[in-house]
Design brief:
436 residues, alpha+beta, endopeptidase fold (from Nostoc punctiforme), SH3 type barrels, 3 domains, 6-stranded antiparallel beta sheet, 5-stranded antiparallel beta sheet, 13 helices, 20 strands, globular
Length: 436
Amino acid sequence: MKRFVSLAVGLVIFWGCSDAPKDLINDLKKPQDAMPYVQKAQEEQTPQTLESLKEAYLAKFFAPLKDLKANPNKQEVFWMQGSLKKYPGYGENLEPNSTQYTQEILANMQLDLYPSVSQKAIITKDTNVRAVPTFRPRFSKADGYPFDRWQNSSIFYGTPVLITHYDVSKRYAHIQSEFVYGWVEVSDLALVTEAQAKELLAIKSFVMPNNDTKSIYDKEGKYVTQMRIGKLFMLDQKDHMLLFQRTSSGRLKISKIQVDLADFHPFPQPFSQASVAQYINLLVGQKYGWGGMYESRDCSAFLRDIFGNFGLYLPRNSYAQAQYGTHQINIENLKLAQKEQIIAQNATPFATLIWLKGHIMLYIGQDKEGNAMVAHSGWSVQSSDLFGQRDHKLGGVVITTLKPAQESNSRLFGSPTLGDRSRMINNLYPYLKGQD
């Protein structure tokens, strides 16, 4: 008996001192490469389909420069106000916020005056869209990182917006676009004149970058912005790009720079599984960014930025993306094996979303064992056994099965997997084919 105890203690000590990464789940030990899942090429899109996708995307993108009006529904626009009154949460020091602190933020929003302005503007710096006019975080619990509930979204340089309101300090402007509402620092946008709006609406040629890393500079060599997958740029000539900068008076200055078009592709790009796989592989390993924090992507931003290349203007959050269009199949009350069977029979690889509450993934096909494979940007997954629950970090863009960390799940006490929690699939392929 003593020998058995000594052996058990020794094994525990050995494992505790091992250099092996304890959180590297089996799914992440497999090659993080989407290309092997690419199937035969789909039927090519017609020029008419590509033009229709382009027109629909640009109609939403440029809406703030045309006839977009402030949404009068304050409950919808300022959806965070209820929690400011009742659930102050935790601050950056991981201590509870006081209700006085959050009530002051609410008062600074001047909601009784909304909408107070209607000003056309354009974003001049990749920046954050906040749910409240402060850069400080609010976590639901003391260990709630990275889920800052006041971080609504990121927004790209060059995005037209409608300013509908200002906070008391006028440091923050409340902006509206077709995909997001929220507060942006005034220093990160520029006011657009009617003449400038007319000029921008006349642009016919657009490109998106083929990379996520290179920078763009003006004629004087000053940094303007970074190329990002899914970021739309405007051309006024064959290879002259429009640059947007904020003047000292807060107005928009438009200049032009010649660019190397080898770093870009015309917008929209014809859809193919191989093209989507290339974007996935470019983004695999990038770190997770809740609501676009740190210029990183969460699950919905990952999908929005990929499908933007092909002319789909997806909504901002995972639930809205799951509800996009009319080609959904509800799989909520099925066993995992049944769900995977329905996915295999009805989903188009590289064009079908799989949604569960709070998360969304892109189906890319099946592995050799017949498991449904997905690409997604996730923070963590859980497993459980008799001794409790354990978090396994994904930490960013990964390719996994629908049951990552299943090997650590107890048969009797296991946590539900991503597949167990999946509720809906949404096939985007009909829209890419111009069938809706």
